[in-house]
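dumping the sequnces here before i forget
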Amino acid sequence: MTEEAVRVPVDKLRAFAHATFERVGVAGEDAAVAADVLMASDLRGIESHGVGRLKMYYDWIKKGIISPQVRFEVVREGPTTAVVDAHTSLGHPVAHRAMSLAIAKARPYGLGAVAVRNSSHYGIAGYYALMAAREGMIGLSFTNARPSVAPTFGVEPILGTNPIAFACPTDEEFPFCFDAATSITQRGKIEVLAREGRPTPAGWVIDRRGDLATDTTAILQGIPKELYALLPLGGAGEEMGGHKGYGLATMVEILSAALPSGAFLWALSGMEKDGTPRPHRLGHFFLAISVEHFVPLSEFRSTVGGILRELRAAAKAPGQNRIYTAGEKAHLREKEVLARGVPLTPALRKELEPVAGELGIPLPW
Amino acid sequence: MTEEAVRVPVDKLRAFAHATFERVGVAGEDAAVAADVLMASDLRGIESHGVGRLKMYYDWIKKGIISPQVRFEVVREGPTTAVVDAHTSLGHPVAHRAMSLAIAKARPYGLGAVAVRNSSHYGIAGYYALMAAREGMIGLSFTNARPSVAPTFGVEPILGTNPIAFACPTDEEFPFCFDAATSITQRGKIEVLAREGRPTPAGWVIDRRGDLATDTTAILQGIPKELYALLPLGGAGEEMGGHKGYGLATMVEILSAALPSGAFLWALSGMEKDGTPRPHRLGHFFLAISVEHFVPLSEFRSTVGGILRELRAAAKAPGQNRIYTAGEKAHLREKEVLARGVPLTPALRKELEPVAGELGIPLPW
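..and the predicted 3d for all of it:
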């Protein structure tokens, strides 16, 4: 983050995002969910998925790629399962309802799972996993995404960054929350580097010759043209386990596309062959596991806490004085952002000014 | 594999493994399952978990670390869930019964999950995921394992290699099957290198100073003494996503230990403080997802097949002429091993000779 970043209070920024979604046709309650997901991202330090993406959603709604009026059609339902067609609606409120449904099913039966098709970007996967954690459950959240990642031995960006999120309660003051792309990095992180004018670390991205690429601007412009591809977790080839990241991404694709019978891989590009924008038709999969059906919640909480504390107490590598567990950095960041506000770079403020102008919303900074 | 490897027919080797398990007290049907899991590993080319580990199980049963008589006590049960205490029984038949139970629950309800505590090594995680795939379901299989992997920023081998396996049916002649440790590699792979007298690739293992280690013999001897640690998928530090492999490993630890209220991390070392062997008390977690509760199975099969074929058709990196999908190499290997037999190195044959001698079983080669 550069020195020129301005800190904006979370509530003011949330109100701005909420108003933006409402003015482009999202109903009040759905706009509140979408704004809350963006705020949760900035609070957790995942700036790649925070208010920095507000203009992206705004543009897509204006272009008709995302439908602002949320449709949530349950096309099939069983005691613990449901399949939902979202009819290209805004992803965040769709995902919120889907995870709520999975949680409601898990409460009596122990498990609940909802698969969604024809949705759009839902923001951070962890948001929905955390909904289950707050209900004393384990939550898992998966989504496919626009093509940007090469399979092992390939150079074409055909897979999405296909994240896996897993959250659960602990006996500490914040939940365990793992939330990560199955690629080494994701487009949002490279967008953050672009806003900061920084190069991309060697090892994250390859070009069509299979060589490592570091030119951030060229990469962002080139991925939709299939000139660059992100690498799966584990990197190129198999020696360092790149086939594992690739396999996990495929698993997420199957859960997100095959279970709800939705679109997959190239069909998620958001573009017709001639470059005309069209809906991304993403799919999601949500799973809620009711802890109380297995063990008393207090017992589960203390086992998880015990695992986390034992990990943190392990011997540190030279030069390192702390081992973190998943969700811990986000928790520390949340405290800091709540106190000091969300940092907005000059580039991001400049990007949002015309949006505010067009919609007649006062700028929050 | 060296040139001196002898090829032994699968059925002869299976009978040998079956007889070995039976002679040390495992009941016939359970011995058959354990032998089948070892054979499935060798057939799929996962030699690290095949008959090369028969002596390990033999030793552990003789030392009392593993109880050959299988106990499968369901301590808690709901419509879709169960918790099982395995009382330090042999892991393969325990896991087989647990996944069978998860599948039986998923059939009427759509989902089924079974968490197991106080078990032992269950072989390849994928074996149990594949059981669900054969029933027209998605299967997931997780287990924790002996401490051997360092958390991000740590050097102590505190986490297990904690694999994730995911299998499902497709419209092709073999199922999709992802089965991988959440570390870059696992101990079994290094054991294979040791049997072949080869060094360990730089990047898989660190020493207590955080430096990369490649001396295979020293590594295998040093891991139980906590002198070396495997690295999580993504490698050391965070830049290439090492925290993601570490986070996935922690997720598997929570599913395998906190849901069944079992042992975790250091407690799985299999040794008292003074080095006396004791049961590992591993935990497992199995999930079955009935495809038919979401979409017609034939539709699911063809969507998955479509995903896999689109991946394989992506542009190849220079020097590569093929992109594989998870389970494909195993399928090719299976055909080859069925036709030619399981390759056994001289070191492995030498290791098994005294076992056969002690038990009075004829050698299968």
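Chain B has one domain: 6-359.
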